[in-house]
């Protein structure tokens, strides 16, 4: 039997009469890197929030690392982590202080040594003792990634991990995540608008539109299926309902 | 879940706020500043009244004691509410909510920080009253602990209620942290006996724990009598209000998860 990091079945979220996510079902195998794609308002952030337990589903089930996320989220939270440019770390605390606080929250053993490891791996030394509020966007993203990796998560959820980064830092970040995934066997689910990033990093893609899962598959398979040259063109086809015209 | 893990997470949250205090001496100074200024003003007022009022003259320091103890309640409330709003101001609630930190552990950390903030805020004013007015709150002895704890718990209950409202309605409701506690002040009998209030208002006042505490303080300072009935009334009411406020906060946290408020924390 295949071991899944994530099993989502019939997941829906309604805000009054607004349907944000509508009956989404998918599975993600352990060790895979998967992208959640979709235009603005497609339901990516809502889906990620439900997977993290930040938001309660209206219906459906979510199993994360084998545990029911609605009923037993505190069993699984120490084994996952997340990063988003839309959720800050306290600005008045230095990067080191933030990592220390979150290290204690996650029960990270040998915390000082772990912070030292991340300091070296993510090249944080130059600004580790500076308040997070005074860091550049790229530095903040690196600190947020260090926080997300503190507990060596088995499942890493990333919301637009390279948003606001320059191409060089973004490329470095993708390389680091790929290396981390290979070394740890972790599962990564990322929401992104960057199609090149998705093609380079991901084994699979889940495409959301209007709160529904409208397609899924390996990036190269989707490109072939839609008869396009790039995943970006596939994304545009889906966003503009052009699939019928383009399919042979 | 082990108790030591829970204690470690509560410690982590308190550490987060202690880092802020360590890195900002103006904040620490500001915490002690207002209680000290308040005490100085009421100290002079008290000195004036002592020469013009038999009632005040009989109980030297009753007004200074009242103002210092009122600050315990005020700071107790602010200590809880500001610790929570700090998470909203820094947009950190999302990270905390996907960490292993349970909501009740967050509450415990907020109460712990309130204790620290209250001590930092009120103790300098208490110390300053000794050389300035020859009034030592510590002369109250053990009853001081009873008054202090009861008023701080009353402040906690209000602070938790305010935090719940801010979580539910956003930072637009943050001024409630200062407003709510003052709504209770006229009914608390801080500077006057509850009997001064209109008859129809007195039952409302007696339903509030601080009314029992301040009456108890006056009984001790004027009649040298520790009123156990007032003490037990305050303890009982505080337990009820603290449980209700804690339940409101936890319920609101659950509602916030249903409505997606943990990520949308702005005004």
TrEMBL record, chain A:
<keyword id="KW-0067">ATP-binding</keyword>
<dbReference type="InterPro" id="IPR050763">
    <property type="entry name" value="ABC_transporter_ATP-binding"/>
</dbReference>
<dbReference type="InterPro" id="IPR003593">
    <property type="entry name" value="AAA+_ATPase"/>
</dbReference>
<keyword id="KW-0813">Transport</keyword>
<keyword id="KW-0536">Nodulation</keyword>
<protein>
    <submittedName>
        <fullName>ABC transporter ATP-binding protein</fullName>
    </submittedName>
</protein>
<dbReference type="GO" id="GO:0016887">
    <property type="term" value="F:ATP hydrolysis activity"/>
</dbReference>
<feature type="domain" description="ABC transporter">
    <location>
        <begin position="6"/>
        <end position="235"/>
    </location>
</feature>
<dbReference type="InterPro" id="IPR027417">
    <property type="entry name" value="P-loop_NTPase"/>
</dbReference>
<dbReference type="InterPro" id="IPR017871">
    <property type="entry name" value="ABC_transporter-like_CS"/>
</dbReference>
<comment type="similarity">
    <text>Belongs to the ABC transporter superfamily.</text>
</comment>
<keyword id="KW-0547">Nucleotide-binding</keyword>
<dbReference type="Pfam" id="PF00005">
    <property type="entry name" value="ABC_tran"/>
</dbReference>
<dbReference type="GO" id="GO:0005524">
    <property type="term" value="F:ATP binding"/>
</dbReference>
<dbReference type="InterPro" id="IPR003439">
    <property type="entry name" value="ABC_transporter-like_ATP-bd"/>
</dbReference>
UniProtKB/TrEMBL annotation, chain B:
<dbReference type="GO" id="GO:0140359">
    <property type="term" value="F:ABC-type transporter activity"/>
</dbReference>
<keyword id="KW-0812">Transmembrane</keyword>
<feature type="transmembrane region" description="Helical">
    <location>
        <begin position="61"/>
        <end position="85"/>
    </location>
</feature>
<feature type="transmembrane region" description="Helical">
    <location>
        <begin position="176"/>
        <end position="194"/>
    </location>
</feature>
<protein>
    <submittedName>
        <fullName>ABC transporter permease</fullName>
    </submittedName>
</protein>
<dbReference type="GO" id="GO:0016020">
    <property type="term" value="C:membrane"/>
</dbReference>
<keyword id="KW-0472">Membrane</keyword>
<feature type="transmembrane region" description="Helical">
    <location>
        <begin position="145"/>
        <end position="169"/>
    </location>
</feature>
<keyword id="KW-1133">Transmembrane helix</keyword>
<feature type="transmembrane region" description="Helical">
    <location>
        <begin position="106"/>
        <end position="133"/>
    </location>
</feature>
<feature type="transmembrane region" description="Helical">
    <location>
        <begin position="31"/>
        <end position="49"/>
    </location>
</feature>
<feature type="transmembrane region" description="Helical">
    <location>
        <begin position="230"/>
        <end position="250"/>
    </location>
</feature>
<dbReference type="InterPro" id="IPR013525">
    <property type="entry name" value="ABC2_TM"/>
</dbReference>
<dbReference type="Pfam" id="PF01061">
    <property type="entry name" value="ABC2_membrane"/>
</dbReference>
<dbReference type="InterPro" id="IPR052902">
    <property type="entry name" value="ABC-2_transporter"/>
</dbReference>
<feature type="domain" description="ABC-2 type transporter transmembrane">
    <location>
        <begin position="31"/>
        <end position="221"/>
    </location>
</feature>
């Amino acid at each position: 039997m295949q071991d899944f990091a994530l099993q989502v079945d019939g997941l829906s979220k309604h805000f009054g009469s607004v349907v944000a996510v509508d009956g989404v079902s998918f599975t993600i195998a352990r060790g895979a890197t998967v992208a959640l794609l979709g235009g603005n308002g497609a339901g990516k952030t809502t889906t990620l929030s439900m997977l993290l337990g930040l938001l309660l589903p209206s219906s459906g089930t979510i199993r994360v690392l084998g545990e029911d996320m609605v009923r037993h989220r505190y069993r699984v939270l120490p084994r996952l982590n997340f990063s988003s440019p839309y959720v800050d770390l306290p600005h008045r605390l230095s990067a080191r202080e933030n990592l220390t606080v979150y290290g204690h929250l996650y029960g990270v053993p040998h915390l000082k040594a772990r912070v030292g490891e991340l300091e070296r791996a993510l090249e944080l030394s130059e600004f580790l003792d500076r308040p997070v509020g005074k860091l550049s966007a790229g530095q903040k993203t690196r600190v947020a990634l260090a926080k997300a990796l503190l507990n060596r998560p088995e499942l890493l959820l990333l919301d637009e991990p390279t948003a606001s980064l320059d191409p060089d830092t973004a490329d470095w970040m993708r390389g680091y995540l790929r290396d981390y995934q290979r070394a740890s066997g972790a599962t990564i689910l990322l929401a992104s608008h960057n199609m090149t990033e998705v093609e380079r990093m991901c084994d699979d893609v889940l495409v959301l539109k209007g709160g529904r899962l409208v397609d899924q598959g390996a990036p190269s398979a989707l490109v072939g299926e839609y008869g396009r040259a790039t995943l970006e063109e596939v994304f545009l086809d889906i966003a503009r309902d052009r699939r019928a015209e383009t399919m042979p | 879940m082990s108790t030591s893990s829970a204690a470690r997470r509560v410690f982590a949250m308190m550490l987060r706020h202690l880092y802020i205090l360590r890195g900002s001496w103006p904040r620490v100074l500001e915490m002690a500043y207002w209680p000290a200024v308040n005490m100085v003003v009421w100290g002079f007022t008290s000195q004036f009244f002592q020469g013009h009022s038999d009632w005040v003259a009989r109980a030297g320091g009753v007004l200074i004691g009242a103002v210092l103890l009122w600050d315990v309640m005020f700071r107790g409330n602010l200590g809880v509410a500001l610790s929570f709003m700090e998470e909203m101001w820094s947009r950190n609630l999302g990270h905390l909510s996907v960490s292993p930190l349970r909501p009740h552990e967050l509450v415990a950390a907020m109460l712990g920080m309130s204790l620290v903030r209250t001590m930092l805020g009120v103790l300098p004013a208490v110390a300053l009253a000794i050389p300035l007015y020859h009034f030592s709150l510590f002369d109250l002895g053990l009853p001081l602990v009873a008054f202090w704890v009861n008023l701080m718990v009353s402040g906690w209950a209000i602070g938790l209620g305010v935090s719940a409202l801010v979580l539910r309605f956003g930072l637009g409701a943050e001024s409630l942290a200062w407003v709510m506690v003052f709504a209770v002040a006229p009914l608390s009998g801080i500077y006057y006996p509850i009997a001064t209030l209109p008859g129809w208002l007195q039952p409302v006042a007696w339903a509030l724990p601080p009314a029992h505490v301040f009456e108890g303080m006056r009984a001790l300072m004027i009649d040298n009598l520790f009123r156990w009935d007032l003490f037990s009334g305050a303890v009982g009411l505080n337990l009820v209000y603290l449980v209700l406020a804690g339940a409101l906060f936890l319920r609101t946290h659950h509602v916030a998860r249903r409505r997606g408020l943990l990520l949308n924390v702005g005004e």
